[in-house]
Specification:
With about 280 residues, the protein is α/β, with parallel strands linked by helices. It is about 35% helix and about 20% strand. Bound molecules: S-adenosylmethionine.
């Protein structure tokens, strides 16, 4: 099968540039360019979009995004060792790849991007959840991006898409699904990466809702879910009693049984509770 581009295979790129993977940077590289192109396709039609990629590493997913037609890719990489490999890709796709050497947690990339914007990344495990939460919790909605297509450890992916009644259902599911549609679109075995991690991985695709699933003040929703899932085995009248002396009555006003447990309450239920408490 012909390659997705005329650049060298990733194994050679890694050898040529001495890119031995560093655990401290969450480095598990994808070497199969057909696989990275497939991940890029999960983000939809990229031809009219700017793509923000966090952690391009040796550039496997970056090449997938460009080969699949992304209008422009802004790639933010912390590891300076990867920069020469990434500039070779920039040379092969003139004007379409900008690489920024920065910590994604410190960089506000919005000024460097033109809407519509999609975020696609094989995230470093050590900062993946933190970045997701930041992208999901801006003060204003809709956010600067249209969709997120992100690789996580499977266990984290399951927490993002979990529905009420499941063990994985909790604050991450509520944060994600209150403001987005979220689904797992690909599963990858450990052997897809070099070095192979201990666990399976999944790609989650989130598209923003124009407006949240139900009205609620984000700060109050955050307080309620933190308290409810902080003691998820307790009945809500116990886990939430610190929020109001009238909590039983407020739960009933919100249509929730005071003896219910957090994991059985829908996102709309938590929103009703946040409104009743506000
Ligand atoms: N995208 C590449 C791939 O799919 O093969 C590499 C993915 S690897 C899981 C994560 C990448 O994120 C590494 O290249 C690592 O150096 C980079 N990285 C780690 N922490 C980062 C941070 N805080 N900001 C930006 N990049 C980071």
């Amino acid at each position: 099968m012909p390659g997705i581009d005329a650049l060298p295979p990733l194994r050679q790129v890694i050898a040529d540039h001495g890119l031995s993977a560093r655990k401290s940077l969450g480095q598990n590289f994808l070497l199969d360019l057909n696989l990275t192109a497939k991940i890029a396709r999960q983000a939809g039609d990229l031809s009219g979009c700017d793509v923000l990629e966090v952690g391009p590493g040796p550039g496997g997913l970056t090449r997938g995004l460009l080969a699949e037609g992304a209008r422009r890719v802004l790639a933010v990489e912390k590891d300076t060792r990867c920069l020469p490999a990434l500039s070779e890709i920039a040379g092969a796709y003139p004007g379409r790849l900008q690489v920024v050497n920065a910590d994604a947690l410190d960089l506000d990339a919005r000024a460097l991007l033109t809407p519509p914007i999609r975020i696609v990344a094989n995230l470093p495990y050590n900062v993946g959840t933190e970045l997701l939460i930041r992208w999901l919790t801006p003060p204003e909605w809709p956010p600067f991006w249209d969709s997120l297509t992100l690789m996580f450890q499977r266990e984290v992916a399951e927490r993002i898409v979990a529905v009420p009644g499941r063990k994985a259902y909790g604050r991450l599911a509520i944060l994600a699904q209150w403001r987005c549609h979220a689904r797992i679109v690909m599963d990858l075995p450990p052997q897809a990466f070099i070095p192979a991690p201990k666990v399976h991985s999944s790609v989650v695709h989130l598209t923003r809702r124009d407006s949240p699933l139900a009205p609620a003040d984000p700060a109050m929703l955050e307080r309620v879910t933190r308290a409810a899932f902080g003691q998820r085995r307790k009945m809500l009248r116990a886990s939430l009693k610190g929020l109001s002396p009238r909590i039983e009555e407020i739960l009933q006003d919100a249509g929730i049984e005071p003896t219910a447990r957090a994991e059985t309450v829908s996102i709309e239920g938590f929103c009703a509770l946040a409104r009743a408490l506000a």
